[in-house]
Every structure is written in structure tokens, then in C-alpha cells.
């Protein structure tokens, strides 16, 4: 792929992951959430916003680690990807989780934007996955769970 096409694709992937394009961004979905609502589980739903935030953090970190290290060790599905329900989440735990999501997202984007990496080349320790697939996986997965956060906020009557 010629350099200008690869640069264009990298920019589109970055925008898809960070800006949401046609979707609410993750940052917008969690902004201004009252602390008491972080752990509330609406009737007939299996998890809270906190559990979704932690799931996004864990899954994104897993994708980053898989994409960047041949020493990657797979997590057990679903147990390692979901945290149990809790009654309270401190402001510091909340902010730390959000900061880690941003940091890991930025680290992943640095992989994607590094022109030494062929977005289409199979990750040597994988089963045919490549950086392009992993970027689309992060975008898709995070958008799905971001929408769930918005729905829960609507059910809790704390959305715009």
C-alpha cells in the first residue's frame, strides 16, 4: 500500500476509535455520571456502568497486549473480562480506570500509526489476526459497550 493510502487509513482508524464518528464517544458517555449511578444495575440488565467501563478497559488492554507482545498470555473468557458487581466505586478507582482506557487506547494507536508496522501483516504469535483487524475490533467493541452505557444512563434518567 502506498504511503498516502496507509496514512489515510491510519487517520480513519484513529478517528473511528477516538471520535466515534456517528456514535457518542466513550468519554461523552461517561462524562458527568453521578458517582452513585456508577454501580446501579437497572432491572433486567446484567451489569452496571462500572462493570461495562471495567470490561472495556480489560478487553482493550488485552487487545493491546496481544497486538504488541509475543509474550501475550490469553485471558480466560468470560471470567477474566468481567468484574463482579460492587456497591460503590471510589472517585480515584473511577478516574484510574478511565485514565487507563485513554492510555491504552493511545498506546494502541501508536502501534497503528507506526509506519514500520504493516496493518495487513499477520501478527506472528496470532492465528492470522493483523493490526487492522485489531483496530476495528477495538472500535467495534468499544462502540457497542458505549451504547450500552448510554442506554443504562437513559434507564437511570441521567442522560442528556
From TrEMBL:
This is DinB family protein. InterPro entries: DinB-like, DinB/YfiT-like. It comes from the Bacteria. Residues 26-149 form the DinB-like domain. Pfam families: DinB_2.
